[in-house]
TrEMBL record:
Pfam families: GCV_H (PF01597)
Family statement drawn from the similarity comment of this UniProt entry: Belongs to the GcvH family.
InterPro entries for the chain: Biotin_lipoyl, GCV_H, GCV_H/Fam206, GCV_H_sub, Single_hybrid_motif
Official protein name in the record: Glycine cleavage system H protein
CC terms in the record's Gene Ontology section: glycine cleavage complex; mitochondrion
Intracellular or extracellular location(s): Mitochondrion
Species classification: Eukaryota, Metazoa, Spiralia, Gnathifera, Rotifera
Function: The H protein shuttles the methylamine group of glycine from the P protein to the T protein.
Source taxon at top rank: Eukaryota
Record organism: Rotaria socialis
NCBIfam families associated with the record: gcvH, PRK01202.1
Keyword annotations from UniProtKB, A to Z: Lipoyl, Mitochondrion, Transit peptide
Length: 165
């Protein structure tokens, strides 16, 4: 093997573990969706294994229009599944956001106070609404009962077909 080939092989294998870590992180942070278009993402923030991040889907933010104001709950507030936990005001309408699972609010996206349009620009990365602590039973419910991204996309397709008729 030539020196150049040997160098390229060493360089390629040198970066392999970084790619592997990235893929592990991607699968760990999988989002789950409700039929009301909220999403839940299991996170590892602050080493809390039962903390989730919650927001609205891209489909929901497009339907809502340009978000201009966001009313979020206070830290420590407890909600049951399907309780209203936030209100979003857009140029089109005011919409409630429903808690997808039982949990206690452990954090809110403070950026939304001044930049509510982050929900439109980046509903999954920067436009999340709250973080909540859930119990182990709820964590299992999320992975078994809510829709993963593929199931949610199929749900949207059937919903759009139903709206056409």
């Amino acid at each position: 093997m030539s020196n150049l080939s040997s160098f390229l092989v060493r360089r390629a294998t040198q970066y392999y573990p970084i790619r592997q870590i990235h893929l592990t992180r991607y699968f760990y942070n999988q989002r789950y969706f409700t039929k009301k278009h909220e999403w839940v993402e299991l996170t590892d923030a602050n080493n809390k294994q039962n903390e989730v991040r919650i927001g609205i889907s891209d489909y929901a933010q497009r339907a809502l229009g340009d978000v201009v104001y966001c009313e979020l709950p206070s830290i420590g507030a407890k909600f049951k599944g399907d309780d209203t936990f936030a209100t979003l005001e857009s140029v089109k309408a005011v919409s409630d956001c429903y808690m997808p699972v039982d949990g206690e609010v452990s954090g809110v996206n403070e950026k939304l106070k001044n930049e509510a349009d982050l929900i439109n620009k980046s509903p999954y990365a920067n436009g999340w609404l709250i973080q909540a602590v859930v119990d182990e039973k709820t964590k299992n419910y999320i992975t078994k009962s809510l829709m993963n991204e593929n199931q949610y996309n199929k749900f949207l397709e059937t919903t759009k077909e139903a709206d056409d008729h």
